[in-house]
Design a protein that fits this description.
11 helices, binds flavin-adenine dinucleotide, globular, 4-stranded mixed beta sheet, single chain, Butyryl-Coa Dehydrogenase, subunit A, domain 1, FAD, 8 strands, alpha+beta
Amino acid sequence: MTVVDATQSYRSSVRTWLRDHAPGPAAGLPPDEQLRRAREFQAALYRAGYAGITWPTEVGGQGLGTAEQQIFSEEAAEFDLPTYPFIIGMGMCGPTLVDLGTPEQKRRYLPELLLGEEIWCQLFSEPGAGSDVASLQTRAVRDVDGWVVNGQKVWTTNAQWADFGALLARTDPERPKHAGLTMFIVDMHAPGVTVRPLKDMSGRAPFNEVYFDDVRIPDDAVIGEVNRGWQAAVTMLGHERVSIGATRRPRSNPLEFASLVELARHEGVAADPAQRERLAELYAHERALELFNARMRQEAAAGNPPGARGSVAKLAGALLLRRAIETASELAGADAIAWDPDDARAAELAQGINSAPASSIAGGTNEVQRNIIGERILGLPKEPQVDRDVPFAELKVGTQRQGGVR
Ligand SMILES: Cc1cc2nc3c(=O)[nH]c(=O)nc-3n(C[C@H](O)[C@H](O)[C@H](O)COP(=O)(O)OP(=O)(O)OC[C@H]3O[C@@H](n4cnc5c(N)ncnc54)[C@H](O)[C@@H]3O)c2cc1C
């Protein structure tokens, strides 16, 4: 079989399987039912050989390449799949464990993740540490047989469902801020872990604040090495960018080009030259980003990883979404902010419009992506970093008072 034949055959198997197994839209179902469907679908993906497509076979993955992953993502975009509870585990924590986990950690956690049995979250951001996450203040202090953690995290996606989290904590405040961090696996059901929902302006609560009060973590829960948590975080953030870039919104998403054309027809303005121009521009940007992402994946498959160009894709995706929000708001008019709750289409559109601006913040803000592009791709001078070599305990950062973390 030629490469082209093999690719077509893989695409056709994926398409057939998805057509036969994709559950119907989950929007509007009670949260417990949505979660049940998500778990069942993840297990079905695994049994069919479509979970962990690029993960090595030794850890339960399929050992395939980015080409197969790309085909799966393209075909999956035709459906509204219930994969949301697993995005952090499958896209970020799992791949980081594949790279850095001990053999025991891989054996314990990866199969459960692939099978949809356990949900993960990422515990990096804090009230005083977002873009500058290395300024975090959550402390892990050595105890006889492990660590004791105290502190607060925020914006933790899916923590309300999570069984485990990848926690970044400060283990040595006497070292400079990037050098005294460690990444841990934390049991989200352990005594002392409190999860509180945070609502965004769409009215939903996709993320949470998480408190740690004397939470005990065993020694074998360290991911990578003690005090090398920054390196582990960089590994995870690399996977995060790839995951955000590779995840395609379903075509049925209300902010996708095809849905907005439908909306223009519904509102009776599809023939209006100004609306047509807006929609054409949106299409051109959507297509350009698709092709840019496809090119990066092909280059990665050929041994040239995207590196800082992942930030171009992340920024372009956020800007595209902003353009889509403007077009959708113009077309929907007052329905964008005051919708009829009994009108499912209007409610879905309004929620899409109100939750989409978060994409300019989540996974690194647009400004931070611009800094990365400026410094690492365009070769512009670096931002001054006067705090890089100073012991963390001497810095006045976040909510820390001088000497407050010793
Ligand atoms: C939907 C959503 C989901 C999220 N999920 C998670 C999660 O699961 N786990 C997790 O750990 N975090 C999560 N986050 C947090 C996210 O990573 C942070 O919000 C983000 O990194 C920005 O940090 P901040 O909110 O503290 O803003 P800040 O860092 O305080 O930034 C405030 C403003 O200053 C600008 N700014 C900051 N530094 C610079 C600079 N050097 N140059 C120019 N401008 C700058 C920013 O662009 C922004 O406009 C999520 C956020 C969102 C919106």
